[in-house]
Amino acid sequence: MTEDDAGETLFSKAVKQWLQYKSCNQGLSRATIAKYDGYLHRLELFLAEREKDHVSAVTDDLVDFCGVHLFEKGMCPRSRVAAVCAVKGFFAWMLRFEVRADNPAELLEYPKAGVRLPRFPTLKQAEKLLIEPDLESLMGIRDAAIIATLMGCGLRLSGLCGLNESSLIWLQDDKGRERLQLRVLEKGKKERMVPAPEEVRLFIRAYLGHPDLAKIDRNLPNGDRVLFVSLNNRLVPAHEYYGENRRLAPRSVQDMIAMYGKRARLPRELCHPHALRHLYGTELAEEDTHILDMKVLLGHEKADTVDVYNHTAIRKLTRVVDKANPLTKMQTPVTQLARRLSK
After folding, report:
1. Bridge-partner residues for 179, per DSSP?
2. Is there a single domain that holds both residue 152 and residue 267?
3. 59 contacts: CB under 8 Å, gap ≥ 6
4. What are the tens digits of pLDDT across the range 99-146?
5. Which of 8, 212, 256, 326 has the fewest CB atoms within 10 Å, i.e. the most exposed one?
6. Is the same domain home to 54 and 143?
């Protein structure tokens, strides 16, 4: 691996430039940037074993890396899609900016990965999760507000943890009642507005009005304030435990939901923030929400992405089947019994 005067490989330097380009010009999230960086670091090590780098690699090298090599490392086809995306994007960028005179990744194919339906709690399971926090304590009302916001607004974890008080837009409806909208930043600082249901408004009002919250310094340099605060972060010295350092970390939210799920004896795979987002998306589909409205509410760029929730809207699909299936229109040995049971 060729290094520059600073000891950085030319490969990693090129990757850093490409990721900066993607971040600044296309607004990719930090999570996506980190993922791409990891895949390309793997590629660098793979090519080094063949005594090659980003300039000398050929198509066969990239095919071997994205196919057999990553498969042998335990990556399923769905996971390898992102790796191929990173490799194709990186080499296309090098061609465009004349780091290379060709693009060996141009004909690289994406692995075929079937659509996997999301898993999420039922409404009864979600109820059990939401009643677990102790509403008498600041921690409990904070946790209930977080769970309600994830369920009722369908936020991604990054969007939830990034909320400040300025993200809360307090409005009045045509009857003079207070309503709440959330200004959410997700996926590379892409902004969207999400109307909050009345339950979320009430939980957040109760959290903001808790007397123990007033004792916490959550002020930011720009005059804003962190919304959901950390209450017991031992990694931050006491004299620095204020402002941005008070922001609740994504991992803490994940652990908190898993803890309440365990208490409620719910399956672990249903007790994480994205499962609650899937519940939100599915309930939108259950109510025949227009796919373009779902796209806006869920913060997706493409309407096709939200189509998966039409496959998980079981109550709606059950009503369709009950009405339209051929057995309903026939006389069978169990027709009379089925009709009596359905009344």
Report:
1. 171
2. yes
3. 104, 105, 107, 108
4. 999 999 999 998 886 667 889 999 999 999 999 999 999 999 999 999
5. 326
6. no
